[in-house]
């Protein structure tokens, strides 16, 4: 490549970007122009680094892009509309894009819990060997039911939210390893299966489902979403496709970050339901109905609103000018 010709052809664009970066105020047209020039110059920098890594030109373009990135960041203003766009466009779009990961995780996990619970119900001696006969009796008679009414509702909601958020964080953060997220899921599903087996063996299956379903449907779905996102993160660097592993991992990681922010709010709702609805004196059908309504609402939100947002071009990633320059393999 003729480097001198390349510089001569694009210098005016670089100088314009540098000029816009120095302006104290930008109108909407100038701000959009700055973003467009940032994208173009990022491509130029990647091209130079790949084909003719001239240190002076790389340093010059990097400096211009740094100034432009800082200038663009200064024009961002936080307002309620940004929050609304996140929850009506960004978050549901990412949920929709990762749907195959978390729905598959959900189906497999629930089937495993039912099969394990069914087997343990017909082999109660195994549960007694693991927990001890006294612990089994205590769980069946008092512990399982008392868990939901021991603490004050507001305190319990905060405790549940913290615990669920920690499980979700583990599922996402450890998902990059591939194996650890499966371990987290296995432990959670086995705990559920053991609890169900103890209650059903004691003839309290209706109490078990009456206490688990109001909050559990949405709560466990959030865990499955987090686990599915973790596995997607793992797969992004195992099988990056046409992208480099860094590019694939970075793209997936940014979307998973958006997902985790949205899940924090949904998990707060789960904590509120578990603290105020699950132990309430409401009829069991009403309590389960509330939980089912919340779960159906979330599924429609993820699959219908998410699909619409994605089809309208919302990919859940941050704008290009906020990312580091990417390596271009072809121009």
Automatic annotation (TrEMBL):
This protein's source sits in the domain of life called: Bacteria
Where are its TM segments located?
A: 100-120, 165-185, 192-212, 218-235, 256-278, 284-304
- Does the keyword section mention Isomerase? no
UniProt keyword annotations, A-Z: Membrane, Transmembrane, Transmembrane helix
Concerning InterPro entries, the annotation shows: SpoIIM-like (IPR002798)
Pfam families xrefs: SpoIIM
Q: What is this protein called?
A: Stage II sporulation protein M
Species annotation: Gleimia hominis
């Amino acid at each position: 490549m003729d480097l001198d010709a390349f510089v001569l052809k694009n210098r005016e664009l670089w100088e314009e970007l540098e000029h816009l970066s120095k302006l104290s105020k930008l109108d909407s047209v100038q701000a959009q122009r700055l973003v467009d020039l940032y994208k173009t110059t990022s491509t130029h920098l990647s091209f130079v680094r790949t084909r003719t890594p001239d240190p002076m030109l790389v340093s010059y373009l990097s400096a211009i892009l740094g100034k432009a990135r800082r200038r663009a960041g200064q024009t961002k203003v936080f307002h309620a509309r940004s929050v609304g766009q996140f929850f009506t466009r960004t978050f549901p779009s990412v949920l929709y894009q990762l749907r195959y990961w978390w729905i598959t995780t959900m189906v497999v996990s629930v089937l495993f819990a039912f099969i394990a619970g069914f087997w343990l119900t017909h082999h109660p001696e195994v549960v007694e060997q693991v927990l001890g006969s006294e612990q089994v009796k205590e769980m069946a008679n008092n512990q399982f039911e008392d868990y939901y009414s021991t603490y004050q509702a507001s305190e319990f909601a905060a405790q549940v939210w913290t615990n669920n958020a920690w499980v979700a964080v583990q599922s996402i953060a450890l998902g990059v390893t591939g194996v650890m997220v499966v371990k987290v899921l296995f432990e959670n599903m086995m705990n559920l299966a053991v609890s169900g087996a103890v209650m059903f063996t004691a003839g309290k299956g209706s109490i078990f489902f009456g206490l688990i379903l109001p909050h559990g449907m949405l709560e466990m779905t959030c865990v499955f979403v987090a686990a599915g996102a973790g596995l997607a993160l793992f797969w992004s660097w195992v099988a990056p496709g046409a992208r480099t592993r860094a590019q694939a991992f970075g793209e997936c990681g940014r979307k998973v970050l958006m997902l985790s922010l949205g899940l924090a709010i949904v998990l707060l709702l789960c904590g509120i339901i578990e603290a105020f609805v699950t132990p309430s004196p409401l009829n069991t059908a009403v309590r389960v109905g509330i939980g089912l309504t919340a779960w159906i609402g979330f599924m429609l939100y993820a699959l219908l609103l998410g699909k619409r947002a994605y089809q309208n071009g919302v990919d859940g990633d941050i704008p290009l000018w906020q990312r580091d320059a990417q390596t271009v393999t072809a121009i």
